[in-house]
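From the shared-data thread, chain only:
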Amino acid sequence: MSEEPTSPEGIRRKRGIYLLPNLFTTGTLFAGFYSIIAATQDRFAAAGVAIFVAMLTDMLDGRVARLTNSESDFGIQYDSLADLVAFGLASGLLAYMYSLNTLADYNDVFGKMGWLAAFFYTAAAGLRLARFNITRGAPVEKKTFLGLPSPAAAGVLVGFVWVGADFGIPGGDMIIPVFLLTVGAGILMVSNVRYNSFKDFNIRDRVPFRYILFMVVGFVLIMIDPPRVLFLGFLAYALSGPIMALQRRRRLRTDKTS
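Structure, as tokens:
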């Protein structure tokens, strides 16, 4: 009969995994996989919706794990793998299937640039997640993220594709913006640009009444026009990092000259 694993301190650890948070993580993986299937069938709007559903389940798994005190190393690794599928592979493939693949209509070199841009985005998402895992808990990842988080990068790229598909615009007419967003989102993910993590916001604390009003207004705006509101929201967040970095540089220059 095998014994239960023990820690270096001699304390026995219980086998098994926490069900609830990993159930949400499985939802993220499922949504990413479904997005891949939908993209290969040219159902680009459905593929985009699936990625945003993956964002919701990805947010919930971490919150649920912290609220129920069920965080684990297994959950961390499983979450990263699911994020890579949904926000890396599925999002990059969606951009390629919607627009970047049409670069092959020009010549072979442009065709290679299309799938290489999608690969660069996917690889950047994997590198971003790996860096986040090894710096998890470090001061740099407490109040800020180092590099654009992969869900936010997917929100920009997939949101734009969803807007185009919702308007009925052929992907071949959107090659330049999709290419720039794919490469740009990948660069921001592996950059040293810092982004607000909002980790200091505790949902269990009391908040002013106006916060609830802001949430209601946000829900109303999203429901009025989901693709455009979500795309603009994630785009604003993606641009906030470089803007704040430029402001910090300007303040440093001003302090040195004063």
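Confidence is low (pLDDT under 50) at residues 1-7.
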